[in-house]
Write the structure tokens for this entry.
Amino acid sequence: MAQQGNRVKPNPKAPRQVLPVLAPEIRAHSADEVALGFTAEQAKLEALRCIQCAKPACVDACPLHIDIKRFILSMVEGGFDAALEAISEQNPFPGVCGRVCQHELFCEDACLVGKKWDPVAIGSLERFCADHARLRTEEAPPSPPRKPTGPKVALVGSGPASMIAAYDLVRKNYRVTIFEALHKLGGVLAYGIPNFRLPRNILHDEIARLQNMGVEFVTDFIVGRTATIDGLFEEGYQAIFIGTGAGLPYMMKIPGENLIGVYTANEFLTRINLMEAYKFPEADTPVRVGARTVVIGGGNSAMDAARWAKRFGSETTILFRRGRAELRARLEEIEHAEEEGVHFEFLGAPVRLLGDENGFVVEMEIIRMELGPPDSSGRPAPVPIPGSEYRIPVDTVVAAIGQGPNPTLQRATPQLVTRNGKIAVNGGGATSLPMVFAGGDVVRGGSTVILAMKDGREAAAAIDRALSQEQQ
């Protein structure tokens, strides 16, 4: 490592470090994490690729505005703990975000090194800092939880938007309670993302950090049924944040959709990820996966479902109505799916499913597509080719074609203004109801973890401003 005075000289021309991964022949039959993380030597070499820009565009591009320049410089100088402290000023979940944030769309896309060479692997460096600290502290006894004394704030849903809002509010002494409808915490991080992408101990540890800071969690509590928004206010909560996500799956609306063996990605992934159906045959809520599985869709949920199906021993195909270039999943997930033996069938869409005399799906009819002019998504629109239908045998079908907000809370609160099922908000996540805020997928529709966190942070700041004014 060359020196410039007392500082290490950057080396942006060095090849980007390749993240070690579990061998495909092992991971295709395992729920273990696929991406293994940088070694300390790799982390140092990758950190050296950062040129320490005078005006780091990566910081502005990060929805949480992590001081990326400072945390990477700390790594270069050997201060992994200092690097984690710099990250944690803005992001309390580096282990989660280092794994599932789509860095390639944000900080890494803005990285100046990437204009000429490969961008610095910012996400993998963030993950390394979190994992390095965890390995050293996992034996340490937990500290007693703090007891905030400020105004009470209720957060609905325990996904990424609510969790970062809780982090920001509890640091300002608010008494924060998160209400979760399911029996486990984490929202989409728990039910939507597989263990092989986000190990549950990582998620649990970072949630435990909030608990130690004084955040209270209540599970099996459906706001809109167990209690209403008005009921929470009557219990003394002075502000409410709605971060209920987008857990209502879109349907294919084709004949045969109700046959046995046909799932939405939401159900399929929830039963495997949250209910641990992958622990067959002893799982309490097993999932029937046949010899031949077809997953419909091209996003991350489609990749997750297909990769789980492979782990159940099924010959798995992803059917996508556009071409490979139009896939919306992360490139890393597409590559991992292919390495694990998932097949891809492009320019095809299901038109009907056929079953046997017992109601089990046995066949899928598909129509070939061609690409036309761009549609509202900006991608070439798929156009059916008349007379091109063909059939394939299939035992399991998973529809991963998107999802929207669950309407339970909105129906129980008709005065809450919505648009197409999404909660309408103004600046800072303010809704049509006084002291009720919202953010994440319940506002955006299906989006990304990091943008949900951005919304949660903005709402927390708005809640703090509003309650501070009330106290004056």
